[in-house]
Amino acid sequence: MPTSSQKSKNTHQEWALQIILLIALGLVLVWLGHQTWINLKSRGIQSGFDFLFDPAGFDIGETTWIDFNSDESYWVAFAAGLLNTLKVSSLGILLSSLLGLALGLAASSTIWVLKAISRTYIEIIRNIPLLIQLLSWYVLWVEYLPASSDPIILLQSLFISQEGLSFSGWVWMIPMDGSFLDGHLQWNAPVVSPDGVQSALNASPEFLSILMALSIYTSAFIAEIVRAGIASISKGQVLAAQSLGLIPSQISRCIVLPQAARLILPPLTNQYLNLIKNSSLAVAVGFPDLVSIGNTALNQTGRAVECITILMLVYLTLSIAVSFVMNQIGQSMTFKD
Fold first, then answer.
1. Is 233 helix (H, G, I), strand (E, B) or coil?
2. Cα separation of 246 and 276, whole Å?
């Protein structure tokens, strides 16, 4: 049996090996970057990230929290695209999780109708490519819904048309030439005019198409993960809970789901990462996400390596952040002795 000194020696060797591998990887990346810079320079191609501080010269049709215009710098444009990506990804994760959980519970139900509907949904949605679903939703919004001058009105607060969704709600109104702190809350209600629906709260058909496609597509995979997690729990525990007089909802909430969650979490993390990366398909319907902004900047500046590097680093950072958060949640669920 190894002694404590031998264990310490093995640990030091493992750390030394990891450090050597990281240094070697760093040297390889530096060498590749240097060779790329030499090749670009020999061909007379400009390189570097200085272009980020130049005026972008293009407008962004839809932004989140940033009032962007063509005089803003490229880095502001990338920031606006990133915020759009974060908006559609975070909402997509929320909606797909709720829908996937409901479908997974239905697929595990003893009610035949619920199980059949859930299984049919899962099999159909999982086997239709995401891009086709995205384009189908977009065509539905812009072709088959009524014009904005004659929208579908639900509960006098939700207006649906080819221009997207307009809805009622509280908005922070900023006076002209005033600061954010000078504003005040005001109730906004959409108004229909000959020119269309006028509202301060809107969601474009491009945003709605990518959001619905991502949410519905990912929910089918999450539903199957939830169903498999629930099926992995021993039926003996369920029978024991029933013998104690617990009702089905109590058994699911107190016995099955807490244990299944630990098994569900790792594959669920993969689906969240897939959703974030799949949000790059928004460029197919014209939603100005990070990839769309990157493509525009690349075409205007010719800095292909730099723009692609920015995109890769941003998606890598988002993936690492999501993985870290989910790992922390998983560790908190681990049973302690």
1. coil
2. 39
What burial letters (b/e) apply to 96-116, b meaning 16+ CB within 10 Å?
Answer: bbebbbbbbbbbbbeeeebee
- Where do the domains of the chain lie, and which CATH numbers do they carry? 74-145+205-333 (1.10.3720.10), 152-203 (no CATH)
Which amino acid, one-letter code, is at 217?
Y
The residue to which tokens 């215009």 are assigned: 69
Q: What is the pTM of this model?
A: 0.84
Report, as an integer, the average pLDDT of 131-149: 93
pLDDT, tens digit, for every residue of 159-169?
Answer: 889 989 988 77
Confidence of residue 337 (pLDDT cuts 50, 70, 90): very low
Q: Say which DSSP state 73 is in.
A: B
Residue 156 scores a pLDDT above 70 = yes
- d(CA 167, CA 39) in angstroms, rounded, equals 53
Q: Which residue has the tokens 């692609």?
A: 308
Phi-psi sector, 242: left (phi>0), alpha (psi -120 to 50), beta = alpha
What are 4's two structure tokens? 């404590």
Strands 184-188 and 169-173: antiparallel
One-letter-per-residue 3-state SS of 70-88 = CCCEHHHHHHHHHHHHHHH
> CA 73, 74, 78, 84: dihedral to nearest 10 degrees?
60
- How many residues are listed for the chain in this entry? 337
Residues 248-302 have pLDDT tens digits of: 778 777 788 888 888 899 999 999 999 999 999 999 999 999 999 999 999 999 8
C-beta separation of 170 from 187 below 8 A: yes
